[in-house]
Amino acid sequence: MVENQRWLDYLAHAVLILGVVIVAFPVYVAVIASTHEPTAFTSGTIPLLPGANAVETYSGVFEGGIAAQMSVPIGVMLTNSMIMALAIAFGKIVISILSAFAIVYFRFPFRVLAFWMIFITLMLPVEVRIVPTFEVISNLNMLNSYTGLTVPLMASATATFLFRQVFLTIPDEMMEAARIDGAGPMKFFKDILLPMSQTNIAALFVILFIYGWNQYLWPILVTTDDSYQTIVAGIKRMADVVDSEPLWNSIMSVTVLAMLPPVAVVIFMQRLFVKGLVDSEK
Fold it and tell me: What membrane topology term does the record carry (predicted)?
């Protein structure tokens, strides 16, 4: 039992505040840098107070006034990232929950082996299998397409494992009761398992949306058409100019705008996200 001592409260709050400062400071610097002149960020002294160029910088980004370093409009890049993040999140959830449903509630030969074969793919992240995956996508003529951007990233051993663990906590009596009432497997899945897994699905959706939104390596590998460029790849291309100095205020403003959709998803689904992570009882 931990005693309730005042100095422990102060220590806990000090550690919490320190952690928040460490995490939030780079974001704060990005926001501040987006409000100054392009050279302020590289002058040797990083400004810590807002500048006077915020309106000019952000309006220039939205109007495409920095075409020399930003060949694709920011709206196109944000749309591509949104499509990619949503497709990966929904695709992973659908595939994983159906896989876990089959593994837990159906009896078929090599069922345990099938689960472990899925589980062992945790040791093969995208970066490890990226060359053969690219070869397959290229042979299927899926380069420069949303299908090529999203399908190879949809299978998820982690999500399958999490849903399997959730389904294992559901009492067998519920399945027996559903069977006595005449419910088939899919009705049991739709009317009982899905409602009971809502918080877990919500928590997983937040994690997978951010995972899909932050993808960098795979999009720049499978897309050469600028119309499929994502916001993360766009930021990298803006910083890679060779015949002029990078416009760091514009780069930071695009970075700030790129953070908004994931932040909005986390805030909007915060309650379900926390409940899905900590609520293990069904």
Answer: Multi-pass membrane protein
